[in-house]
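Weekly modeling sync, notes
Attendees: S.R. (lead), two postdocs, one rotation student

Agenda item 3: backlog of single-chain predictions. S.R. asked that every request posted to the team notebook include the full sequence so nobody has to chase files. The rotation student volunteered to paste the first one in as an example of the format we agreed on. Action items at the bottom.

Example entry:
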Amino acid sequence: MVHHVVLCRLHPGLGDEQVEWVLRETRIRLLKIAEVRAIRCGKRIEADNAWGFFFGVDYESMDKMALGHADPVYHRFVDEVIHPYVGQQMALSYEMEPGKDVRYS
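Predicted structure, as returned to the notebook:
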């Protein structure tokens, strides 16, 4: 299992309603991708945290993650939800089952 987490710096001046919309759309859109096993997302608690928003996605393997990222739904999500509201991103992927070859399902 692979957990892919993306930390996002939101554009300055976004209101609470806009951030809540980003959270909702992240859940709705990413769960439409067949390769996605689970999704988590949230907004910062501490005001001094530069990463105002995150989303984490579970995939069965690195191959499944590549398929998920190639999906047109994912591309629309990035174009319509991430790019308009997010400035900088940091993406990290982690193996959740040590010893298993995460390249394959």
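Discussion: group reviewed the output briefly. The domain at 2-89 is CATH 3.30.70.100 (Alpha-Beta Plaits).
Action items: rotation student to repeat for the remaining queue; S.R. to check formatting next week.
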